[in-house]
Sequence to fold (109 residues):
Amino acid sequence: MTLTKDERLKKGDFRGTRWIRYSETDNFILLIHKNTLSLRKIAVSIRKKTGNAVVRNRMRRLAKEFFRLNKDIFVEHSDNLIKVKQMPLKLTLDETGKELKLLLGRRNY
Fold:
């Protein structure tokens, strides 16, 4: 399974959107917005203060890969925005995936 173009949030999808804070961990915040489509969509947001471009892009790729491999655990009919507060100690798919699974297991609303 691949991450299709339809599963990515675009800039226009953010306009006028009211995000609900779904859950939070030490390094990530998950915001959700219900959509009318039968798709789960994702976007990753990282501040420039978090690290240089190489590190930010690596984190973005890891989060998207996690989404691609674990689409079924994300909320159905939703737009998912993962905000990175700070970088995890290890930038590997295993370490990042553990924390993202924890993020999806919690519900704060």
Observations:
- The first strand starts at residue 20 and ends at 24.
- The chain has a mean pLDDT of 89.
